Structure formats: structure tokens, C-alpha cells
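hiii so um. not sure if this is the right channel but i have a protein structure encoded as C-alpha cells and i wanna go backwards to a sequence. like what aa goes where. can anyone help
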């Protein structure tokens, strides 16, 4: 029973489940999305915690089970987060630091590349905070423009719906005029090991995957049960592209360690 709520501007929104993508599939239910698709021209799903977690699971798990192809993506970027990926302490994020911002952009670049691998049109939304300086916004805008990445300055927090009309128009334009070559990162008939490795290499940028002895035993046992044809739901830190929460920015030369596997057979995936 999806819960119908409304925003301050009387826009309907459907709330049905809210599992975090660092431990689960990171988006609302198939029921709510398909209900929305039956009622509206456009339905937006928040697939939280970056392209490495929320988006990957939305594309590889949810859209497959729900039976639809996504039309486009909004990649939300904040200057605060990019400065953090550029080495700024959380307590200092209010202070202007264009140098750290430019360094942290490598993280945004990785997420953009991931969405491009899935083959979908996209727009980068610069989610403006009151602490963002004009120079910082200009630096991020210049980077996006110089790389021909479509973007919009989103001021929803301050201005409500009016603060996102440019973003909405640009997203519609991209979806209507750019090719949609959507593909998933793996096929269900691949082994669990192959699916996990595909996600780790293609989405996280890892060199490879290490499985603990316990995980290797489980891989063999799950195959006997016939669970190896299920989707994969990776439980990983949301703070880093790697499995080490302290490796910010765009880590290089790392492996992903899989400690254990847990079957969620009813949901149709292995965690």
C-alpha cells in the first residue's frame, strides 16, 4: 500500500519503502514506481548513495524486475561533497576552497562515466547550498561546460519548484534528443562471482575481487541451491568507491573484499 503524500507545493509523491543502498537496494518499491508510471508522464525514483550503489542497483535489480527501461538520469552533485573528496575536513566545508573542489571533481567524473556505461542520457544537478561561493559554482560550471556535460544549478532548497524548472527542462531535452542505449552490467545467467566482479571493476573501478574462504564456500553452496542465477545486491560503504570508507576521491589500485553472501531469495537477489 504505497503512501501518497504531497509536497509543500501540492505535488503528489509516493513513499513505499526506503532501504539504504549501502545495505539494500536503495530505492522505493516496484509497486510504487509502476503505480506512478500508470498515473503520470514522468516518474522519478531517488536511488540514493551515488551511481556506484543506488543507481547500479536501480538499473541492475529494480528495472529488470519491474520490466521497464529507465529514460534518463539526474546526477546530483554538491560542492560540499566534492570539497570533501578533495581533502577538506567536514568542519571546514563552509570555507571557500576552489582548489579542493577541482581536486574532488574526479569523484563526480567517475559517477558520470558510470552512467555513460549504462548508456543513459543525463543532466548534472548542482545542488546549491547557502555556503557555496560564486567562485566555487563558477569553477564547477566551467568544468562541466568544458567537458560538454549538460548541467543545471538546482536551487530547490531555497526556491522550491521554481528552483528546478531549468533542471526539468534540460532533463526532458536530453531524454528526447539523446540516444538511450541502456544496458545492464551483467546478465542473470552469469555466475555470482562473474556478476560481483563486473560490478566491482566496471562500476567501482576496482582491479578485482577477493573472496574470503567463507564466501567461497557460500558461492559453491548457493550454486547447488540454484541461487547463482539471482541478481546481486552489494553491501558496501557509501563514503568511498572502494570498500574502504577512508579512501575518498577516485581511488586507484584497490581490490574489493567479499566477506560473506546472504540469500534474499524472496526479493530475488543475493546480498
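sure thing!! here u go:
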Amino acid at each position: 500500500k504505497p503512501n501518497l503524500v504531497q509536497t509543500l507545493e501540492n505535488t503528489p509523491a509516493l513513499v513505499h519503502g526506503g532501504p539504504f543502498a549501502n545495505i539494500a537496494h536503495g530505492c522505493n518499491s516496484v509497486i510504487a514506481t509502476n503505480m506512478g508510471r500508470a498515473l503520470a508522464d514522468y516518474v522519478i525514483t531517488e536511488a540514493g548513495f551515488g551511481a556506484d550503489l543506488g543507481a547500479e542497483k536501480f538499473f541492475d535489480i529494480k528495472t529488470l524486475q519491474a520490466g521497464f527501461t529507465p529514460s534518463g538520469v539526474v546526477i546530483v552533485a554538491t560542492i560540499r561533497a566534492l570539497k570533501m573528496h578533495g581533502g577538506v575536513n567536514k568542519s571546514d566545508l563552509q570555507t571557500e576552497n576552489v582548489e579542493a573542489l577541482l581536486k574532488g571533481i574526479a569523484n563526480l567524473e567517475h559517477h558520470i562515466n558510470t552512467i555513460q556505461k549504462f548508456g543513459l542520457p543525463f543532466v548534472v544537478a548542482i545542488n546549491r547550498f547557502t555556503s557555496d561561493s560564486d567562485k566555487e559554482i563558477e569553477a564547477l560550471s566551467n568544468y562541466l561546460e568544458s567537458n560538454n556535460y549538460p548541467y543545471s544549478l538546482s536551487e530547490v532548497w531555497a526556491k522550491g519548484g521554481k528552483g528546478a524548472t531549468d533542471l526539468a527542462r534540460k532533463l526532458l531535452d536530453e531524454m528526447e534528443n539523446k540516444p538511450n542505449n541502456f544496458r545492464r552490467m551483467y546478465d542473470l545467467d552469469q555466475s555470482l562471482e562473474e556478476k560481483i566482479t563486473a560490478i566491482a571493476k566496471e562500476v567501482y573501478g576496482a582491479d578485482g575481487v577477493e573472496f574470503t574462504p567463507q564466501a567461497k564456500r557460500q558461492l559453491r553452496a548457493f550454486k547447488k541451491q540454484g541461487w547463482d542465477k539471482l541478481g546481486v545486491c552489494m553491501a558496501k560503504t557509501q563514503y568511498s568507491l572502494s570498500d574502504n570508507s577512508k579512501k575518498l576521491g577516485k581511488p586507484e589500485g584497490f581490490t574489493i573484499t567479499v566477506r560473506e553472501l546472504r540469500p534474499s531469495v524472496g526479493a530475488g537477489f543475493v546480498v
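oh and The two ends are 25 Å apart (CA to CA).
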